[in-house]
Design brief:
binds NADP nicotinamide-adenine-dinucleotide phosphate; Rossmann fold; single chain; 2 domains; alpha/beta; 10 helices; Dihydrodipicolinate Reductase, domain 2
Protein backbone atom coordinates (compact mmCIF):
# COMPACT_ATOMS: atom_id res chain seq x y z
CA UNK A 1 0.00 0.00 0.00
CA UNK A 2 1.18 3.53 -0.79
CA UNK A 3 -0.16 6.53 1.10
CA UNK A 4 -0.34 9.60 -1.14
CA UNK A 5 0.46 12.73 0.88
CA UNK A 6 -0.18 16.37 0.08
CA UNK A 7 2.16 18.92 1.61
CA UNK A 8 0.24 21.89 2.97
CA UNK A 9 2.61 24.90 2.83
CA UNK A 10 6.07 25.13 1.34
CA UNK A 11 8.13 26.65 4.15
CA UNK A 12 11.30 25.63 5.90
CA UNK A 13 10.22 22.41 7.64
CA UNK A 14 8.21 21.22 4.64
CA UNK A 15 11.12 21.81 2.26
CA UNK A 16 14.07 20.71 4.36
CA UNK A 17 12.67 17.85 6.42
CA UNK A 18 9.12 16.69 5.66
CA UNK A 19 9.15 16.33 1.88
CA UNK A 20 12.51 14.49 1.91
CA UNK A 21 11.17 12.25 4.71
CA UNK A 22 8.05 11.41 2.69
CA UNK A 23 10.31 10.51 -0.25
CA UNK A 24 12.43 8.26 1.95
CA UNK A 25 9.76 6.62 4.10
CA UNK A 26 8.56 3.22 2.92
CA UNK A 27 4.92 3.29 1.84
CA UNK A 28 4.75 7.11 1.57
CA UNK A 29 4.61 9.20 -1.61
CA UNK A 30 4.50 12.97 -2.08
CA UNK A 31 1.47 13.38 -4.33
CA UNK A 32 0.53 17.07 -4.35
CA UNK A 33 1.35 20.43 -2.81
CA UNK A 34 -0.65 23.42 -1.54
CA UNK A 35 0.78 26.93 -1.32
CA UNK A 36 -0.75 30.39 -1.20
CA UNK A 37 1.12 30.82 -4.47
CA UNK A 38 0.61 28.27 -7.28
CA UNK A 39 4.06 28.99 -8.74
CA UNK A 40 5.66 28.18 -5.39
CA UNK A 41 3.61 24.97 -5.21
CA UNK A 42 4.79 24.05 -8.70
CA UNK A 43 8.45 24.69 -7.86
CA UNK A 44 8.15 22.69 -4.65
CA UNK A 45 6.39 19.84 -6.50
CA UNK A 46 9.13 19.71 -9.12
CA UNK A 47 11.92 19.92 -6.54
CA UNK A 48 10.53 17.02 -4.52
CA UNK A 49 9.08 14.98 -7.39
CA UNK A 50 5.39 15.14 -6.43
CA UNK A 51 3.73 12.29 -8.31
CA UNK A 52 0.28 13.64 -9.19
CA UNK A 53 -0.15 14.62 -12.85
CA UNK A 54 -1.44 17.99 -11.55
CA UNK A 55 0.42 18.41 -8.23
CA UNK A 56 0.44 22.19 -7.64
CA UNK A 57 -2.51 23.93 -5.96
CA UNK A 58 -3.34 27.32 -4.50
CA UNK A 59 -6.93 26.28 -3.71
CA UNK A 60 -7.17 23.87 -0.76
CA UNK A 61 -10.63 22.54 -1.67
CA UNK A 62 -9.42 21.76 -5.18
CA UNK A 63 -6.45 19.82 -3.78
CA UNK A 64 -8.68 17.97 -1.30
CA UNK A 65 -11.19 16.97 -4.00
CA UNK A 66 -8.58 14.64 -5.55
CA UNK A 67 -9.78 11.04 -4.99
CA UNK A 68 -6.22 9.72 -5.28
CA UNK A 69 -5.04 11.83 -2.34
CA UNK A 70 -4.99 9.91 0.98
CA UNK A 71 -3.49 12.26 3.58
CA UNK A 72 -2.25 15.78 4.22
CA UNK A 73 0.80 16.98 6.13
CA UNK A 74 0.03 20.38 7.63
CA UNK A 75 3.20 22.47 7.79
CA UNK A 76 1.71 25.96 7.86
CA UNK A 77 1.90 28.50 10.72
CA UNK A 78 0.34 27.32 13.97
CA UNK A 79 -2.97 29.22 13.89
CA UNK A 80 -3.80 27.87 10.43
CA UNK A 81 -3.49 24.17 11.32
CA UNK A 82 -7.03 23.80 12.68
CA UNK A 83 -8.93 25.14 9.66
CA UNK A 84 -6.78 23.18 7.20
CA UNK A 85 -7.06 20.01 9.28
CA UNK A 86 -10.83 20.33 9.54
CA UNK A 87 -11.13 20.84 5.78
CA UNK A 88 -8.99 17.79 5.11
CA UNK A 89 -10.92 15.58 7.56
CA UNK A 90 -14.25 16.67 6.06
CA UNK A 91 -12.88 15.67 2.66
CA UNK A 92 -12.02 12.23 4.08
CA UNK A 93 -8.24 12.70 4.15
CA UNK A 94 -5.98 11.55 7.00
CA UNK A 95 -4.34 14.45 8.86
CA UNK A 96 -0.74 14.60 10.01
CA UNK A 97 -0.29 18.00 11.67
CA UNK A 98 2.91 19.73 12.63
CA UNK A 99 3.24 20.70 16.27
CA UNK A 100 1.56 22.49 17.98
CA UNK A 101 -1.49 20.66 16.63
CA UNK A 102 -3.73 23.73 17.06
CA UNK A 103 -3.70 26.93 19.11
CA UNK A 104 -6.87 26.68 21.18
CA UNK A 105 -8.75 23.95 22.99
CA UNK A 106 -12.08 24.26 21.15
CA UNK A 107 -10.37 23.98 17.76
CA UNK A 108 -8.43 20.98 19.00
CA UNK A 109 -11.54 19.22 20.25
CA UNK A 110 -13.31 19.94 16.95
CA UNK A 111 -10.38 18.54 14.98
CA UNK A 112 -10.18 15.37 17.09
CA UNK A 113 -13.95 14.81 16.87
CA UNK A 114 -14.18 15.59 13.15
CA UNK A 115 -11.33 13.22 12.31
CA UNK A 116 -12.93 10.55 14.50
CA UNK A 117 -16.33 11.09 12.87
CA UNK A 118 -14.83 10.94 9.38
CA UNK A 119 -12.89 7.78 10.20
CA UNK A 120 -9.54 9.36 9.32
CA UNK A 121 -6.31 9.26 11.33
CA UNK A 122 -5.10 12.35 13.16
CA UNK A 123 -1.41 12.36 14.07
CA UNK A 124 0.93 15.04 15.38
CA UNK A 125 4.50 15.41 14.11
CA UNK A 126 6.71 14.99 17.17
CA UNK A 127 9.86 13.86 15.40
CA UNK A 128 11.85 13.72 18.66
CA UNK A 129 9.87 10.57 19.52
CA UNK A 130 11.80 9.00 16.62
CA UNK A 131 15.28 9.98 17.81
CA UNK A 132 16.75 6.48 18.28
CA UNK A 133 18.52 7.40 21.53
CA UNK A 134 15.46 9.09 23.05
CA UNK A 135 13.35 6.14 21.99
CA UNK A 136 15.71 3.63 23.61
CA UNK A 137 15.72 5.70 26.80
CA UNK A 138 11.93 6.08 26.88
CA UNK A 139 11.48 2.34 26.37
CA UNK A 140 13.97 1.64 29.15
CA UNK A 141 12.25 4.16 31.43
CA UNK A 142 8.85 2.59 30.78
CA UNK A 143 10.33 -0.86 31.51
CA UNK A 144 11.51 0.42 34.92
CA UNK A 145 15.26 0.77 34.22
CA UNK A 146 15.41 4.09 36.13
CA UNK A 147 12.80 3.19 38.73
CA UNK A 148 9.97 5.64 39.22
CA UNK A 149 10.90 8.89 37.48
CA UNK A 150 11.05 11.75 39.99
CA UNK A 151 12.30 14.69 37.90
CA UNK A 152 13.14 15.87 34.38
CA UNK A 153 14.81 18.99 33.10
CA UNK A 154 14.69 20.10 29.45
CA UNK A 155 16.51 23.08 27.96
CA UNK A 156 16.11 24.10 24.29
CA UNK A 157 16.97 27.65 23.30
CA UNK A 158 18.16 29.59 20.27
CA UNK A 159 18.95 33.20 19.42
CA UNK A 160 16.73 34.93 16.85
CA UNK A 161 18.12 37.99 15.06
CA UNK A 162 14.90 40.00 15.42
CA UNK A 163 11.15 39.60 15.96
CA UNK A 164 10.15 39.28 12.30
CA UNK A 165 9.27 35.56 12.67
CA UNK A 166 5.50 34.92 12.37
CA UNK A 167 5.59 33.16 15.77
CA UNK A 168 6.36 36.50 17.39
CA UNK A 169 3.08 38.08 16.32
CA UNK A 170 -0.55 37.10 16.89
CA UNK A 171 -1.74 36.98 13.26
CA UNK A 172 -0.79 33.33 12.68
CA UNK A 173 1.26 32.59 15.81
CA UNK A 174 0.11 31.93 19.39
CA UNK A 175 3.45 31.36 21.13
CA UNK A 176 7.04 32.09 20.13
CA UNK A 177 9.63 29.96 21.97
CA UNK A 178 6.82 27.84 23.37
CA UNK A 179 5.44 27.30 19.85
CA UNK A 180 8.80 26.77 18.17
CA UNK A 181 10.48 24.33 20.56
CA UNK A 182 8.16 24.16 23.58
CA UNK A 183 5.82 21.48 22.20
CA UNK A 184 8.75 19.05 21.82
CA UNK A 185 10.04 19.77 25.34
CA UNK A 186 6.59 19.22 26.88
CA UNK A 187 6.02 16.14 24.75
CA UNK A 188 9.27 14.52 25.85
CA UNK A 189 8.47 15.12 29.52
CA UNK A 190 4.94 13.71 29.18
CA UNK A 191 6.16 10.79 27.05
CA UNK A 192 8.77 9.76 29.62
CA UNK A 193 6.66 10.46 32.72
CA UNK A 194 3.24 9.20 31.71
CA UNK A 195 1.22 7.17 32.33
CA UNK A 196 2.95 6.39 35.67
CA UNK A 197 3.12 10.01 36.82
CA UNK A 198 -0.53 10.76 36.03
CA UNK A 199 -1.74 14.16 34.88
CA UNK A 200 0.05 17.49 35.25
CA UNK A 201 -1.79 18.80 38.32
CA UNK A 202 0.14 22.08 38.57
CA UNK A 203 1.96 24.06 35.89
CA UNK A 204 3.64 27.34 36.80
CA UNK A 205 5.52 29.56 34.40
CA UNK A 206 7.61 32.67 34.05
CA UNK A 207 7.38 34.33 30.65
CA UNK A 208 9.75 37.03 29.47
CA UNK A 209 9.49 39.23 26.38
CA UNK A 210 11.87 42.00 27.33
CA UNK A 211 14.34 41.81 24.40
CA UNK A 212 11.91 42.54 21.55
CA UNK A 213 8.76 43.41 23.53
CA UNK A 214 7.00 40.71 21.54
CA UNK A 215 3.38 39.98 22.45
CA UNK A 216 4.51 36.34 22.73
CA UNK A 217 6.97 34.51 24.97
CA UNK A 218 10.61 35.08 24.08
CA UNK A 219 11.78 33.02 27.04
CA UNK A 220 9.56 30.63 29.00
CA UNK A 221 10.43 28.74 32.16
CA UNK A 222 7.90 26.07 33.12
CA UNK A 223 7.63 24.02 36.28
CA UNK A 224 5.34 20.99 36.17
CA UNK A 225 4.06 18.89 39.05
CA UNK A 226 2.49 15.53 38.24
CA UNK A 227 -0.16 13.67 40.20
CA UNK A 228 2.37 11.19 41.61
CA UNK A 229 4.57 14.03 42.87
CA UNK A 230 7.13 13.90 40.03
CA UNK A 231 8.39 17.27 38.83
CA UNK A 232 9.81 18.77 35.64
CA UNK A 233 11.49 22.01 34.59
CA UNK A 234 11.49 23.28 31.00
CA UNK A 235 13.31 26.33 29.61
CA UNK A 236 12.66 27.52 26.05
CA UNK A 237 13.99 30.72 24.57
CA UNK A 238 14.53 32.72 21.40
CA UNK A 239 16.84 35.15 23.24
CA UNK A 240 20.05 33.15 23.75
CA UNK A 241 21.98 30.11 22.62
CA UNK A 242 22.69 27.29 25.07
CA UNK A 243 23.54 23.58 24.87
CA UNK A 244 20.32 21.67 24.20
CA UNK A 245 19.87 19.25 27.04
CA UNK A 246 17.44 16.79 28.60
CA UNK A 247 17.97 15.21 32.02
CA UNK A 248 15.95 12.30 33.39
CA UNK A 249 16.14 11.37 37.07
CA UNK A 250 14.58 8.24 38.54
CA UNK A 251 14.75 6.55 41.91
CA UNK A 252 17.21 4.00 40.49
CA UNK A 253 19.17 5.82 37.79
CA UNK A 254 19.53 8.83 35.55
CA UNK A 255 20.21 9.85 31.95
CA UNK A 256 21.53 13.00 30.27
CA UNK A 257 20.96 13.84 26.59
CA UNK A 258 23.11 16.59 25.10
CA UNK A 259 22.57 18.19 21.67
CA UNK A 260 20.07 15.48 20.80
CA UNK A 261 17.25 17.96 20.13
CA UNK A 262 17.24 19.10 16.51
CA UNK A 263 16.82 17.74 13.02
CA UNK A 264 19.41 15.00 12.73
CA UNK A 265 18.83 12.32 15.36
CA UNK A 266 22.37 12.73 16.71
CA UNK A 267 23.96 14.10 19.93
CA UNK A 268 25.29 12.30 22.98
CA UNK A 269 23.52 10.35 25.71
CA UNK A 270 25.01 8.98 28.90
CA UNK A 271 23.48 7.40 31.98
CA UNK A 272 24.54 6.35 35.46
CA UNK A 273 25.82 3.16 33.75
CA UNK A 274 27.90 4.94 31.08
CA UNK A 275 27.59 6.02 27.46
CA UNK A 276 24.44 5.00 25.55
CA UNK A 277 25.22 4.09 21.94
CA UNK A 278 22.43 4.58 19.44
CA UNK A 279 22.14 4.60 15.65
CA UNK A 280 21.71 8.01 14.03
CA UNK A 281 18.48 7.81 12.01
CA UNK A 282 16.54 10.64 10.40
CA UNK A 283 13.71 11.09 12.94
CA UNK A 284 11.39 12.65 10.35
CA UNK A 285 11.43 9.43 8.33
CA UNK A 286 10.40 7.61 11.51
CA UNK A 287 7.41 9.82 12.16
CA UNK A 288 6.18 9.57 8.54
CA UNK A 289 6.65 5.80 8.48
CA UNK A 290 4.69 5.47 11.73
CA UNK A 291 1.81 7.49 10.26
CA UNK A 292 1.80 5.28 7.14
CA UNK A 293 1.64 2.19 9.35
CA UNK A 294 -1.17 3.73 11.42
CA UNK A 295 -3.18 4.10 8.19
CA UNK A 296 -2.24 0.65 6.89
CA UNK A 297 -2.84 -1.17 10.17
CA UNK A 298 -5.80 0.98 11.22
CA UNK A 299 -4.20 1.84 14.56
CA UNK A 300 -3.49 5.09 16.35
CA UNK A 301 -0.37 7.00 15.32
CA UNK A 302 2.48 7.41 17.83
CA UNK A 303 1.05 10.78 18.89
CA UNK A 304 -2.69 11.00 18.23
CA UNK A 305 -5.09 13.92 18.44
CA UNK A 306 -5.83 13.45 22.15
CA UNK A 307 -2.14 13.63 23.01
CA UNK A 308 -1.73 16.55 20.64
CA UNK A 309 -4.53 18.28 22.49
CA UNK A 310 -2.99 17.59 25.91
CA UNK A 311 0.21 19.22 24.62
CA UNK A 312 -1.74 22.29 23.45
CA UNK A 313 -3.58 22.47 26.78
CA UNK A 314 -0.23 22.62 28.63
CA UNK A 315 1.09 25.29 26.23
CA UNK A 316 -2.03 27.34 26.91
CA UNK A 317 -1.72 26.86 30.68
CA UNK A 318 1.88 28.05 30.40
CA UNK A 319 0.68 31.43 29.12
CA UNK A 320 -2.25 31.61 31.52
CA UNK A 321 -4.90 30.77 28.94
N1 LIG B 1 8.77 19.33 14.07
C1 LIG B 1 9.72 20.17 13.73
O1 LIG B 1 10.91 19.85 13.79
C2 LIG B 1 9.35 21.54 13.26
C3 LIG B 1 10.36 22.45 12.93
C4 LIG B 1 9.99 23.69 12.42
C5 LIG B 1 8.65 24.01 12.29
N2 LIG B 1 7.69 23.11 12.65
C6 LIG B 1 6.27 23.46 12.54
O2 LIG B 1 5.94 23.53 11.17
C7 LIG B 1 5.06 24.62 10.93
C8 LIG B 1 5.72 25.54 9.90
O3 LIG B 1 6.91 26.05 10.44
P1 LIG B 1 8.12 26.54 9.49
O4 LIG B 1 9.28 26.76 10.39
O5 LIG B 1 8.28 25.65 8.34
O6 LIG B 1 7.56 27.95 9.04
P2 LIG B 1 7.91 28.78 7.71
O7 LIG B 1 9.25 28.40 7.20
O8 LIG B 1 7.63 30.19 8.01
O9 LIG B 1 6.85 28.21 6.66
C9 LIG B 1 5.47 28.34 6.86
C10 LIG B 1 4.77 28.28 5.52
O10 LIG B 1 3.37 28.39 5.74
C11 LIG B 1 2.75 29.07 4.67
N3 LIG B 1 1.91 30.18 5.15
C12 LIG B 1 0.57 30.26 5.02
N4 LIG B 1 0.10 31.38 5.57
C13 LIG B 1 1.15 32.02 6.07
C14 LIG B 1 1.30 33.27 6.74
N5 LIG B 1 0.25 34.05 7.01
N6 LIG B 1 2.54 33.63 7.12
C15 LIG B 1 3.62 32.85 6.85
N7 LIG B 1 3.52 31.66 6.21
C16 LIG B 1 2.31 31.26 5.81
C17 LIG B 1 3.88 29.55 3.77
O11 LIG B 1 3.91 28.66 2.68
P3 LIG B 1 3.27 29.14 1.28
O12 LIG B 1 3.90 30.45 1.00
O13 LIG B 1 3.64 28.07 0.37
O14 LIG B 1 1.78 29.27 1.49
C18 LIG B 1 5.13 29.41 4.58
O15 LIG B 1 6.25 29.12 3.79
C19 LIG B 1 4.80 25.27 12.28
O16 LIG B 1 3.61 24.80 12.83
C20 LIG B 1 5.97 24.82 13.12
O17 LIG B 1 5.69 24.75 14.51
C21 LIG B 1 8.02 21.89 13.11
Amino acid sequence: MTVNFAMIATGRIADNQLAPAVTEAEGARLWSVFSRDRGRAAEFSARHGAASPAPAHDDLDELLADPELDAVIIASPDKIHAAQGLAAARAGKHVFAEKPMVTDRADGRALVDTCGGAGVKLGVAFHMRWHAGHRALAEAAHAGRFGTLRHMRVNWTQRQPDASNWRASPEVGRWWSLGGVGPHCIDQVCWFMQPEAGEVKTLRSVIDNSVWNSPHDETAVLVMHFENGATAEICTSMQFVSPKRMEVYGEEGWAICEETFGYDGDGRIWTDRGELDFPVHNPYVGEVRDFVLAVEEDRKPEVDGEEGLQNVDLLLRAVGA
